Amino acid sequence: MIMPREKTPDLNLPMVAGGQFVLSEEKAERGTLVCFYRGLHCPICANYLKELEKQTEAFAERGFNTIAISSDSEERAKSMAEKVEASNLRFAYGLDLKLARDWGLYISAGRGLTSINIEEPALFSEPGLFIVNNDQTLYYASVQTMPFSRPHFSELVGALDFVIKNDYPARGEFTGAV
């Protein structure tokens, strides 16, 4: 498990729009919001990413880049970006599931066709949302075992206003005996 204030694993993945997403080379004012999603097969992910697309400008205004990442192929990731009508939100693909585990993501086995008639991959990661500071240390993490009940991006934007105003530190960093 990655602890707050500790360095996260690096990410170096191809992007749908071309080029590479390299977390250690991100140049946002404050950090990067990394949204790991299940894949094209997940209708909940599509709706969630549509909301992130809408809020990407608000995150940028607060000094944060955004990226959506899955273990999907380029073709499936491109289809998801099109479904979301992404114009601001970047999409990266090909996440190795060993690296997904390093990030603390849960892995699920595919179970055939979904409710939208798209085949689940044999294995894929469940959702995770992270805010990573520019020094690549973890500020915020939300990891789930299911596709539903995820953090709301509009609430997170509001929380970041408080964080920025009050120089609020990352929490949950205590690792000593309790």
Keywords:
178 residues, alpha/beta
Could you write a compact summary of the structure shown?
By secondary structure, the protein is of the alpha/beta class.
Sheet having the most strands: 5 strands, mixed
Number of domains: 1
Rg over C-alpha atoms, rounded to the nearest angstrom: 16 Å
CATH topology: Glutaredoxin
Identify the CATH architecture: 3-Layer(aba) Sandwich
Strand content: 15-25%
Strand order, sheet with most strands: 5-4-3-8-9
Mean pLDDT: 97
Q: Could you name the ranges where pLDDT drops below 50 across 5 or more consecutive residues?
A: none
How would you name the oligomeric state of the polypeptide chains in this document?
single chain
- Terminal CA distance: 18 Å
The helical percent reads: 25-40%
Number of contiguous helices: 4
Secondary structure class reads alpha/beta
The named CATH superfamily = Glutaredoxin
User: How many beta-strand elements?
Assistant: 9
Global morphology = globular
**CATH class membership:** Alpha Beta
- Helix/strand order: EEEHEHEHEEEEH
